[in-house]
Write a structure and sequence with these properties.
Layout: H1 3-24, H2 27-41, H3 53-67, H4 81-88, H5 92-105, H6 118-122, E1 129-131, E2 137-139, H7 140-148, H8 153-160, H9 165-180
Antiparallel strand pairs: 1-2
Length: 183
């Protein structure tokens, strides 16, 4: 398919997802949908070059909805997968499959920095966490305490277990190796 035909399909797809987001969701989803379609359009093998554009439009909204809890009644905005599929006159099983393809193609997941809503990013439980040199995950606020006291998280844990730090780290490494079934 020529680049001109692909760009035309992209333009049509953009119009479809933007119209849906404006009518049923919000401006943030409109922007995220737009960004996702454009990112898919930059891929070497543009996924929406082939197939029904209504299915691709449904799948774009569906994929974004999955990672942003659009289908969870306790969140706002809220829609069901059926709402999306009914609007575009598509089948949920087909749309779900295409949404998975989209998520895989752009490595889309929960708390994705590029495609999550602001609410999801703000509520990310790991946003204020860091991985230490010891491989432990701790709150950023605690990192300062460790640095000020010239102690590592591994040292603190080892002390609480009445072990020395090196012994604790070796025990932790052995546990991980055993747990993963490697020698």
């Amino acid at each position: 398919m020529s680049d001109e035909k692909t760009k035309n399909k992209e333009k049509q797809l953009l119009e479809m997802v933007e119209t849906f987001a404006e009518e049923y969701i919000d401006d943030e989803y409109k922007e995220l949908s737009n960004k996702l379609v454009k990112k898919l359009g930059r891929k070497h093998d543009v996924p929406f070059k082939r197939g029904n554009l209504e299915i691709w439009a449904s799948a774009v909204i569906y994929a974004l909805g999955q990672i942003n809890f659009l289908f969870d009644k306790s969140f706002e905005p809220y829609l069901t997968p059926d709402d999306i599929c009914d609007y575009f006159n598509t089948k949920k099983s087909t749309v779900s499959t295409k949404a998975k393809k989209i998520r895989d193609t752009v490595n889309l997941g929960h708390h994705d920095k590029e495609f999550s809503t602001n609410r999801m990013l703000e509520n990310n439980p790991l946003r204020d966490m860091v991985i230490t040199e010891d491989g432990l995950i701790i709150p950023k606020s605690e990192l300062m305490n460790f640095e000020e006291n010239n102690v590592t998280p591994a040292n603190l844990i080892a002390e609480n277990l009445e072990m020395d730090e090196e012994e604790y780290i070796n025990e932790l490494k052995n546990f991980i190796v055993e747990r993963n079934g490697r020698n």
